[in-house]
């Protein structure tokens, strides 16, 4: 029951039906946080899943925010990410990457967090820039 309440709260806080999924030709592209609930201390990992028929291009960078006093606040990580463009073919999953980035030694306080990641979805000869968002809880 608690997990259902957390999911419902996360959907309300993000302001849309499922911001962790974008529709693409022939399927979806989604961002997953694994696990969706962690104890204070360890960082979860994030994975991109491309269930579409289109190639997705992404990088290592992401934004991490915490729900505080009724709004999203940047957690203050100042990490440098490589500018590498990584292709994710249809039907593939990206390797899991820690949401701790350069701050693995800095524990997250209990609360609801939101990770945002930009991806480019190939649309014929052009690309469509999309934002994936997923939430997780630190208890």
Query: Sheet bearing the most strands, described?
Result: 7 strands, mixed
Ends distance: 15 Å
Overall mean confidence score, pLDDT: 76
Low-confidence stretches: 1-17
Kindly state the number of beta strands. 11
- CA radius of gyration: 15 Å
Strand content: over 45%
SSE series: HEEEEEEEEEEE
Structure classification: mainly beta
Shape: elongated
In DSSP terms (H or I, runs of 4 or more residues), the helix count works out at 1
Helical residue percent band:
under 10%
Write a short abstract of this structure.
The protein is mostly beta strands. It is 9% helix and 46% strand. Strands 3, 5, 6, 7, 8, 10 and 11 form a seven-stranded mixed beta sheet that branches. The chain has a four-stranded antiparallel beta sheet with strand order 1-2-4-9, with no helix packed on it.
